[in-house]
Write a structure and sequence with these properties.
Blueprint: E1 2-9, H1 13-24, E2 29-32, E3 44-47, E4 50-53, E5 59-60, H2 65-72, H3 77-80, E6 81-84, E7 87-90, E8 97-100, H4 108-116, H5 124-143, H6 145-148, H7 153-159, H8 164-179, H9 188-200, E9 207-210, H10 214-228, E10 232-234, E11 239-245, E12 248-254, E13 259-267, H11 271-282, H12 289-293, E14 296-306, E15 317-318, E16 324-329, E17 340-346, H13 349-353, H14 357-370, E18 379-392, E19 412-414, H15 427-444
Parallel strand pairs: 1-2, 1-13, 2-10, 7-15, 13-19
Antiparallel strand pairs: 3-4, 5-9, 6-9, 7-8, 11-12, 12-13, 14-17, 14-18, 15-16, 16-17
Helix pairs in contact: 1-10, 1-15, 5-9
The structure holds flavin-adenine dinucleotide.
């Protein structure tokens, strides 16, 4: 039977970070990944002849942990990211395109300044209401975040007399664009929590698109660093179950029945995957029952190739009140091998999860037209890439159910963006969870 110090289940950023930290400290580590490609939700691959990615991603300038782990693998973020100076909001039915000097997603105050100077977007009454809305939101996040989690963003906005117009032109792009949820389903805690690091790290407020597929620019360099330190990474290796000895976890069982043993197992799967691995042994365990109560949330994207660029610049764009939550042209950044390329995150995701690809395409083309986008002419290829149960729900009242990385079971540690860390469902959050998981093991040995 194969024996390791640590088995890591899942090769997303959480799993790769944990493996890298442990290998560097001399632990024998194997990473087991069920897919044919590493990277999880930050991956890219050839899908029946078209290069695709897990979804449109933006690197945020205030991330610290992700650049740090990349640095260990000799990757400088500035070399793999093209920073965006501006972002766009396209207003349905309007020919005009609202462009802001900084991302409203991660530069709320700068953006607010831009918006406050712009009477097309917000009438004067709304500008005044937004100040207490944001200050109160940040204050409550720091003082009583669990109370804030009881409100949806829409409810919190209503409490602060934010008009429907401000909601449509500002808060819907901010909320739907980032986590694909409309404001009535988006926890106010998640909304303000995601913005808060940006307020204290103003100078880092910018977002960037990756200059290459994410497996290529993120996951592969981390994997190379792991193998350089004698770690092993296996793809096409789904884990089915845990091996238990008395009350301790001592290994895993693969889909083909093979058993691998280790002193420690880190489950760094997405939430849906983690539930499947844990359910045989821990469904009724008091520590794990919250994980089973924490719902998953889907994400659906459509990725399209064109004979020429659809948009004049590769820039993050929001399409409030349409199915196009956020999107970008990518032919000058991530997918330079094609003359035109769009990646679009769809909302509401549940509507599109089981829809026929052709119907999704038609709906997106129709909605694109209302935003002034021609997504019909020159289309040469498209793929729909879905994530049915990768995310934990960001709706109100669930955040307290997220588990810590530490578990009461000897030999078992959790990692993944759904586990408790301050950056919600982001790459930075995944990396922090992986660091925490590695630290727990290193402290124990
Ligand atoms: C469309 C989209 C857009 C996003 N945009 C952004 C963004 O702009 N900025 C940002 O910071 N974040 C963004 N994110 C979120 C970010 O990608 C995730 O938070 C992060 O990548 C999660 O990493 P993880 O390691 O926790 O999980 P994952 O990346 O999901 O990794 C889990 C891995 O475990 C594997 N696995 C599961 N079960 C098993 C099993 N039984 N056996 C073996 N392997 C298993 C999976 O195949 C997967 O590879 C986006 C995500 C999506 C989908």
């Amino acid at each position: 039977m194969e024996k390791y110090d640590v088995i890591v289940v899942g090769s997303g950023l959480a799993g790769l970070t944990a493996a890298l930290e442990l290998c560097e400290k001399g632990k024998s580590v194997v990473v087991l990944e069920m897919n044919h490609v590493i990277g999880g939700r930050t991956s890219s691959w050839d899908e029946d002849g078209m290069l695709v990615e897990s979804g449109l991603h933006r690197h945020i300038g205030y991330y610290k942990a992700l650049p740090k782990v990349l640095k260990k693998a000799d990757v400088d973020v500035d070399d793999i990211v093209q920073w965006e100076e501006q972002i766009d909001i396209r207003i349905k039915g309007s020919k005009e395109n609202k462009t802001f000097g900084i991302s409203p997603v991660f530069g709320p105050i700068e953006t607010l300044k831009g918006i406050i100077g712009n009477n097309d977007i917000l009438p004067p009454g709304d500008k005044l209401a937004l100040v207490p809305f944001f200050t109160d939101g940040f204050l409550q996040y720091t003082q009583n975040p669990e109370e804030l989690d009881k409100y949806s963003l829409r409810e919190f906005a209503k409490k602060h007399n934010i008009s429907e117009e401000a909601l449509h032109n500002l808060l819907i792009p901010l909320s739907t664009g980032v986590f694909f949820l409309p404001p009535e389903r988006y926890s106010a805690k998640v909304f303000f929590g995601l913005f808060l690091p940006g307020v204290s790290r103003f100078y880092k407020l910018r977002i960037g698109s990756y200059l290459g597929g994410m497996t290529e620019v993120l996951a592969n360099p981390l994997a190379q660093h792991i193998t350089k330190h004698n770690g092993i990474i296996r793809t096409n290796t789904p884990v089915k179950d845990l091996v238990m000895q008395e009350d301790s976890v001592t290994g895993v069982v693969l889909e083909d029945g093979q058993k691998l043993t280790a002193k420690h197992v880190i489950i760094a799967a997405n939430l849906g995957g983690a539930k499947k691995i844990l359910k045989n042994h821990f469904q009724n365990h008091p520590f794990f029952e919250n994980i089973f109560r924490l719902p998953t949330m889907p994400a659906v994207t459509i990725q399209m190739e064109f004979e020429k660029p659809v948009l004049p610049v590769d820039r993050t764009t929001f399409g409030p009140l349409t199915s196009l939550a956020s999107f970008a042209e990518q032919s000058r950044t991530t997918f330079k091998h094609v003359p035109g390329r769009m990646s679009i995150i769809l909302t509401p995701p549940e509507k599109f999860l089981n829809m026929d690809d052709k119907l999704i395409l038609e709906q997106v083309q129709k909605d694109g037209k209302t935003l002034g986008l021609d997504l019909v002419n020159g289309l040469t290829n498209y793929r729909v890439i879905s994530h049915s149960e990768d995310f934990h729900s960001l709706e109100p009242n669930y955040d307290h159910l997220r588990p810590s990385q530490e578990t009461p079971i000897k030999g078992l540690v959790l990692a993944g963006d759904y586990t408790r860390q301050p950056f919600f469902a982001t790459m930075e959050g995944a990396v922090i969870s992986g660091e925490n998981a590695a630290r727990l093991i290193l402290e124990e040995s």
